[in-house]
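User: Structure please.
Assistant: Input sequence and predicted structure:
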Amino acid sequence: MAQQQVNNSPFLKPFFLKLPMCSPSHIRQRRHTLPASEFRNLTPQDAISVFEIEREAFVSVSGECPLTLEEVLHFLGQCPELSLGWFEEGQLVAFIIGSGWDKERLSQDAMTTHVPESRTVHIHVLSVHRHCRQQGKGSVLLWRYLQNLRCLPGLRRALLICEEFLVPFYRKAGFKEKGPSAITVAQMSFTEMEYLLGGAVFERRNSGC
């Protein structure tokens, strides 16, 4: 898209969602109508919630978001099957957004491009609600996401870029380094990592993120 360093990562540093005030009777009603925990593909209707989390997480660290609201809408409209959201009581608490890519390595164009029917998924961002951190949600969501990708015909691998201190987190999830990335964002440098979807399923672990 792990320890105190991961807490400082823009990839895993979401913001506090302002929930509406509810009466106790309304809360009791919601408990009967909304699942306690749900994983599903994101839709364009989720774009505002996604972007608010992303904006609060990234702007404070790098000064800009990896995806604009228009790009979030674009990817969720073009390839919702390459996204995954974790909802609790109807509220988005963590998400991953990906898109299709058709080259061996990621380039700057991969940041804004979706290539349909490709064999590679580019994972743009993974983010977790800050009040849900230190619970292993980042690693669990990534595990679920990779297993979902295995069910999509034709996909062979996933690529992502991350800062150097996040390499151990993704390595634990089964990714391998491909070397320095050609992509730069706000003068930040990244490592490109690859996950082969034909490999063994990695074990769920509590990474602390």
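The chain has six helices and seven strands.
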